[in-house]
Design the sequence.
């Protein structure tokens, strides 16, 4: 029987190439399954709320310079803000709105320089109760405050924002 050396070399080359292809395919399959398992774990964490960014964000209440938001509390039907006057002169707050709570104040509130006042809002501008969401929900809203500078009789409106949890 006659064996062609060229055929033998070709056969060895093909078998060696098949082994390399199989190793490459096993490598890709192993890493593919590993990546798939990691993606499934991340999806499960996101589905159950573990990766919810609201849980990691700090609470904040920011207004314009001169008026500080000292403290705040939101319930499903009421918003309470403690504001401080840092203008150096007396102002008269005529309107305060947080999200869909508040509006024009029935009686304007006079704030002396350096004092703090508590504002409790429990009605919507269109009437009815406030709707800040359910308890433990994240709340993010805009603050609009209209005041009158008593010394100059000028009315100004300042804007801010609030991010907190509903208690």
Sequence:
């Amino acid at each position: 029987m006659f064996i062609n050396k060229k055929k033998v070399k070709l056969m060895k080359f093909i078998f060696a190439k098949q082994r390399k292809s199989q190793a490459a395919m096993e490598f890709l399959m192993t890493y593919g399954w590993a990546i798939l398992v990691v993606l499934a774990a991340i999806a499960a964490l996101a589905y159950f709320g573990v990766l919810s960014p609201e849980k990691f964000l700090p609470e904040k209440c920011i207004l314009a310079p001169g008026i500080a938001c000292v403290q705040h509390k939101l319930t499903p039907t009421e918003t309470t803000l403690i504001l401080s006057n840092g203008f150096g002169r007396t102002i008269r707050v005529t309107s305060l709105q947080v999200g869909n709570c508040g509006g024009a104040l029935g009686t304007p509130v006079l704030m002396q320089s350096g004092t703090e006042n508590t504002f409790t809002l429990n009605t919507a501008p269109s009437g009815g109760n406030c709707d800040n969401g359910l308890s433990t929900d994240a709340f993010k809203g805009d603050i609009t405050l209209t005041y009158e500078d008593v010394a100059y009789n000028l009315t100004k409106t300042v804007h801010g924002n609030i991010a907190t949890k509903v208690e």
